[in-house]
Amino acid sequence: MPHHLVGGEEVVFLYGDSDAVSAVHEVPRFDGPTVCRITEAAARVNGKRGVLRTRIGGGGVPAPTMIRSVAAALGLPTRLLGGGGARSLLGGAPYPLEIVAAPVTIRLLRGPGAAPLEWDAPLVLVVPDEYKCTDWELQLGHMFRAEFGAFETNDSMTVRAPAGAAPGTPAPAPVPYIAPRRGAQVTLGTSTFVVADDTMAEARRAASDMRAEAALASASAGTRFLGRGACAECGAARGDLTVCAACQGVLDVYYCGRDCQRSSWWSGHKDACQRAQAARRG
């Protein structure tokens, strides 16, 4: 399991048969006296047995507003999404592996020594099918946006205090969100966390590919064909062409126009193009 905590706490559900009982481990950090508290308990989610592991502390920046909520997750009952009162955060029919935990209290600190503001809200753990959801769709957005006026960034969800909050209440404050993981693990975190390393690497690769394709398309538009060789379909290499079309799959294949590109696609280029795109994603 990658070590990707920035600070605070982590809850991970590990699939697999286990007879683990509740246990607490105090783990000193190698670089100092900071203690990380790890609690494990046997759990069953959607009929699958596993271990629900909670880690509190051991990070660089504590997240005191979420410690109680995350620690309490070990004791919360779970039920299939679609039961009474449940709703899908992603819209439409619930995904097969979504689960809903019992309500928890979200604490928004008002400042040192001040009493926190508290709201009860359902804590939703999304255990996604990674082939049906994109990374950022998995954040807990819709419910908090509707109830608390939440707003979203790439890797966190924050909540604005409602209009009736005490004067001086800071906003935003952290609330839970879900980050997908490779394999069978899902991480519950707060806005003090970064997304798991492997997920961020995938997002960076996708963004890099998009930037490269956009730059190539921009360079192709309004650029003469000189230096690009012949059209892959008709063989034309006329220097007076002011627009050429670059294949977005096989990036070094060019056409003198959309008609040639369409003809090439249906005459056999489709398979090569799709293989090239799949290779870049993989």
From TrEMBL:
Originating species: Raphidocelis subcapitata
Pfam families noted in UniProt: zf-MYND
Protein name as it appears in the record: MYND-type domain-containing protein
GO molecular function: zinc ion binding
MYND-type domain sequence ranges: 231-273
Keyword hit for Zinc-finger: yes
Domain of life: Eukaryota
Keywords from the named record: Metal-binding, Zinc, Zinc-finger
Entries under InterPro entries matching the protein: Znf_MYND (IPR002893)
